Amino acid sequence: MKISLSEKLILYFLTLGLGAIALITVFSFYSTKKAILNRTFDQLTSLRIVKKHQIELFFTDRLKDITLLSESEDTRKIIGDFYNYSRQDLLLNNDPSKERILEAFSGYLKKYTSLNSYFKSICLVNYNKSILKGTFSDPGVVGLTMADSSEYLTLYSQPAREGILIKDEILDKHTREPAMYLVSGIKIPGMYGAYGKLILELSLDAINTIMLNNNPESGLGLTGETYLVGNDYLMRSTSRFQPNSILMTKVMTESVTEAFGDKEGSWITNDYRNIPVLSSYSKILIPGLNWAIIAEIDLKEAMVPIYKIRDSILFLSIMIATIFFICVFIIAKRITRPVIELKNAAILVGQGQYDIHLPITTNDEIGALTESFNSMAGQINEKTIELEKERIGRLRSVFDGEENERQRLSRELHDGIGQYLIALKLRLESLTYAGNPEMKENLQEIKDMFDNTIDEIRRMSNNLMPSVLEAFGITIAVRNLCNETTENTGTSIDFESSGELEEMSTKIKTYIFRIAQEALNNIVKHSTATDVKIMLSRENDTVKLTITDNGKGFDPDTPDAGGNGLHNMRERVTLLHGTFGIDSKINHGTTITVMVPVF
Q1: How far is CA 122 from each of CA 82, 185, 198, rounded to the nearest angstrom?
Q2: What is the pLDDT of residue 406?
Q3: CB 242: neighbour CB atoms within 10 A?
Q4: How far is CA 18 from CA 22, 41, 329, 446, in A?
Q5: What CA–CA distance (Å, rounded) separates 450 from 443?
Q6: H-type helices in 413-433, by residue range?
Q7: Please, which residues bridge with residue 187 across strands?
Q8: C-beta of residue 307 within 8 angstroms of C-beta of residue 319
């Protein structure tokens, strides 16, 4: 399929342009995607660090709270009064000491109502495992119980003496609700080696308030969340997507595993819902707890701005490509228009229309080419006119020469052969009257006259050829010789010529013609060749004639090889101060090379 120059330019420009646009588009998209993902990871990491700091600070403050409570005189006094309260006393409903302890404990709780935001309940446990329980939110409601199956009794043995323990979240045996406790041992004043227990139940709502945030402007969007996971891979804070998830939802994800391996970082992975997310993870440093904190947002939501930017980039790329195509189309047409005009003009010149002049519209290489074309067309037009005049003149000369030659031949035939023929006629007439001796003599004379007539005809034939050379030149003369030989013998002859062959003397041209004529005669008579190639060329001051045939060949070193034909050719080359070479092998053809200097 033929593709025009304009189409090629458009194709090349579009390929380069669209390739560049595509590279820029892909680079921009992936650079933007990387930047947005990195920004989202940074936001998640920042949020995770903030939440981690808040949780750690929360527990630090609560440890301070229980430390202050366990060391306060109010707590020591209450636990001291309650310490010797026996289990049997709990069975007495109207025991004055019991009422006194409950009243004192209620007053104690009213003093510390500010802790209501962080603690759900408070318990004091004495040596006989009696439990004094109340809440900061409702200090008037207190109780004194004896419950062997209570979870508080499980906590009684820990920690020993005055240590503080953070008890990880557990499920309450009765309510099946998650609960978390702080436990501190309290030394009983005035009693050596006597200790009681202070147990504070943490409010998990306070932890969820820190961790759970459904505000889309918080940096977590519509699908982001932060949550806590224990070393049993159960949630320790409420999930945004699954209610009642504390101690109920298993989180066996790669992020949690990495966090418990004392690593922190961020990546794209699947969350506990098996949904692709951007996840940031680390471990929380809280004494007595082995928790991990995870901050995540759905990959689909994180990719929303990337997809928007992708669509914008694609739309912009299409717009740029369209504008680029229009510009390339216009530029290609402007560039190729003068080239197309030059092509059409060259076609007209090839058809023989030389009077062409193209307008020069650009000042560049195409303008210079147009100017050169105009100059060339003008010169060709001038030369064509001159050649036409010369052709007419040559034709006139040929026709005049033909007429002169006819007149010359007429005179020679009349004066030469005509006279001989008349004499022959008279001699033949005289034979009628002559005797036998005379007849012999006359017959001999007639034979001689016939020989002279043959010689005269041969001379006339040979004299005709220099006229052809003078009128038409060596190239045409040799070509005519080849054509005539082919017509007469059927041998295929291929003739080629090159160089300024006509700028030679008549003698050189005549001798070269005779050499070619003699070589063809030898080939036709002796070689049995079917193909002959003749090459005549001139380079600088040397004329070269090469004649090659595919005949039977001969041995050039054999005496009298080639006969008189080769001898005559050598003589002519010697007279021209040239060189004559023969390369021939039997059954492999013959090549004759003639080199003649032109003076």
Answers
A1: 14, 14, 7
A2: 46
A3: 12
A4: 6, 34, 14, 100
A5: 10
A6: 418-430
A7: 195
A8: no
User: Which residue(s) pair with 492 in the sheet?
Assistant: 531
CA dihedral 339→345→349→355, nearest 10 degrees, is -130
Q: What is d(CA 544, CA 498) in angstroms, rounded to the nearest whole number?
A: 10
C-beta of residue 316 within 8 angstroms of C-beta of residue 32 = no
What is the reported pLDDT for 400? 45
Rounded Cα–Cα distance for residues 202 and 122 (Å): 9
What is the phi/psi pair of residue 95, to 5°?
Answer: -70, 120
Coil, helix or strand at residue 159? coil
253: helix, strand or coil: coil
Q: Give yes or no for a contact between 161 and 70, defined as CB atoms under 8 angstroms apart.
A: no
Q: Which residues of 367-377 are buried (b: 16+ CB within 10 A; e: fewer)?
A: eebbeebbeeb
- Angle of helix 365-412 relative to helix 436-472, nearest 10 degrees, comes to 160
Residues with Cβ within 8 Å of 347's Cβ and at least 6 positions away in sequence, in order, are: none
Which strands form 164-171's sheet, in the order they lie side by side? 142-145, 131-134, 119-125, 195-202, 178-187, 164-171
Q: In this structure, how many other beta carbons lie within 10 angstroms of the beta carbon of residue 241? A: 13
Tokens at 583, concatenated: 């390369």
Query: Greatest CA span in the chain, whole angstroms?
Result: 207
Q: What is the DSSP string of 450-519?
A: HHHHHHHHHHHHHHHHHHHHHHH-HHHHHHHHHHHHHHHH--EEEEEEES--SSS-HHHHHHHHHHHHHH
Question: pLDDT tens digits, residue range 95-109?
Answer: 677 788 888 888 888
Residue 465, C-beta contacts closer than 8 angstroms, at least 6 positions apart = 477, 510, 513, 517
584, β-bridge pairs:
590
- Judge contact between 292 and 281, C-beta under 8 A: yes
What average pLDDT score do residues 231-242 get?
A: 91
User: Rounded to whole angstroms, how far apart are CA atoms 388 and 380?
Assistant: 12
pLDDT score of 89: 57
C-alpha span between 234 and 171 (Å, rounded): 12
pTM across the whole model: 0.54
In this structure, are residues 497 and 544 in contact, taking their beta carbons and an 8 Å threshold?
no
Half-sphere exposure of 443 (CA within 13 A, CB side): 8
Amino acid at residue number 103: E
What are the tens digits of pLDDT across the range 313-371? 888 888 888 888 888 888 777 777 777 777 787 887 777 777 777 777 777 777 777 77
> Per residue in 375-433, pLDDT tens?
787 777 778 778 767 755 554 454 345 445 644 664 565 555 656 656 666 665 565 55
Per-residue pLDDT band at 456 (split at 50, 70, 90): low
